[in-house]
Amino acid sequence: MPKMNQLTISCENRPGTLADLTKILSAAKVNIVAFNAGSAGAMGYIQLIVTNPNKAKTVLKANSIPYYEERVLLVKLPNVPGALSRFTSKLAAKGINIGAAYQTAVEDSNKAMVVMAVSNLGLADRVR
């Protein structure tokens, strides 16, 4: 399973925050392949998987946008009921904690892509 760099940006929870960020990255030709966003009160966060993390980090720094970077697992699972349950049960059996996760699949696709921040990336990478 591939390991990817995820960039997490703390931001204001207000209209236009995601639009502003994606405009900056788009102008630099940074492609976003996955994202997750959430908020708690006035603050929010945006987690990104991009095709060129180094370019994204350069753009974020140039625009004084703080970020946190971590390695995450990118898992391709069958897009069927129970696939996520089976995989996460295997992680649990190995004592691997999932700190954050998000998933997407195109309608009628037979595969789903799952991004997971886990407590033991090396061990999780070997789970099948």
Salient structural properties:
single chain; 128 residues; alpha+beta; VC0802-like; Alpha-Beta Plaits; six-stranded antiparallel β-sheet; 4 helices
Can you give a write-up of this model?
The protein is an alpha+beta fold. It folds into 2 domains: 3-69, VC0802-like, CATH 3.30.2130.10; 71-124, Alpha-Beta Plaits (2-Layer Sandwich). The chain has helices at 17-27, 53-62, 83-93, 121-124; strands at residues 3-12, 32-40, 43-50, 68-78, 98-104, 111-118. The longest helix is centred in the first third of the chain and has 11 residues, at 17-27. The relative contact order is 0.22. The model has no long low-confidence stretch (mean pLDDT 93).
**In percent, how helical is the residue content?**
25-40%
Shape: globular
Proportion of strand residues = 35-45%
Runs in which pLDDT lies below 50 for 5 or more consecutive residues are none
Average pLDDT, rounded to a whole number, is 93
Q: Architecture of the largest domain, CATH level 2?
A: 2-Layer Sandwich
CATH superfamily descriptor of the largest domain:
VC0802-like
CATH class of the largest domain, named Alpha Beta
